[in-house]
Amino acid sequence: xxxxxxxxxxxxxxxxxxxxxxxxxxxxxxxxxxxxxxxxxxxxxxxxxxxxxxxxxxxxxxxxxxxxxxxxxxxxxxxxxxxxxxxxxxxxxxxxxxxxxxxxxxxxxxxxxxxxxxxxxxxxxxxxxxxxxxxxxxxxxxxxxxxxxxxxxxxxxxxxxxxxxxxxxxxxxxxxxxxxxxxxxxxxxxxxxxxxxxxxxxxxxxxxxxxxxxxxxxxxxxxxxxxxxxxxxxxxxxxxxxxxxxxxxxxxxxxxxxxxxxxxxxxxxxxxxxx
Length: 275
Fold this sequence. Notes:
With 275 residues, this protein is mainly α. Among the domains are: 3-125, Four Helix Bundle (Hemerythrin (Met), subunit A) (Up-down Bundle); 224-275, Orthogonal Bundle (Arc Repressor Mutant, subunit A). Helices cover 67% and strands 0% of the residues. It has helices at 3-7, 10-13, 24-40, 46-58, 60-68, 77-94, 103-122, 130-150, 156-163, 167-177, 196-200, 211-222, 226-237, 242-249, 253-274. It holds the Pfam family Sigma70_r2.
């Protein structure tokens, strides 16, 4: 059944597929049709609410993608998802399908802007020493690396040993995270369609295409041997060079290169096999 037959009439809308069962391309095509349908419905009616709620569910991947850009922040992911959904709803309410702009291109700046305003409104305006600022960054990176190695969240003792600091320093670094203020914020005029957001309209965000690949890679990476996972984490999360990885693991740079090449090839083939 084509998307067109799903939204042409009110009875057909009852047969809309579950948003969770729709792939990326179908979700994009169905969203375009639903936005057109939304312009034909009266706001406040049951049909209008149904179509808008379906659009929200179809485009939740945009929220998850935007939230992932702030994964090093101290705020709970669930809270950030809720804030991102508010931004998604605002984008749906403002989107005009007649402008021939991809919804993802229009929505992402709105969602990201909502997240940045959340950080701005909830962050502390506290000046902290540079030492603690740097510790906060090291702590965030160490937490990610250890989480991949241990396959669970590390405790304070493990973080302290990894960073060669005391547990008191770890507690201090975690407290400093609450004083962190988001950097560049878009101008207030962005809500009225001016400022930085308008510069992005008309451009397709290529990062959206990778959302499914990232989700598919997670179980594949989790199934790798510990050494391969460690090398990947040090290279792509820790951003270490092959020589630095070799020195840390006690192997040669050439050995690290072979591990990376073999592991990436295996992941690529497994990913293609799932398509």
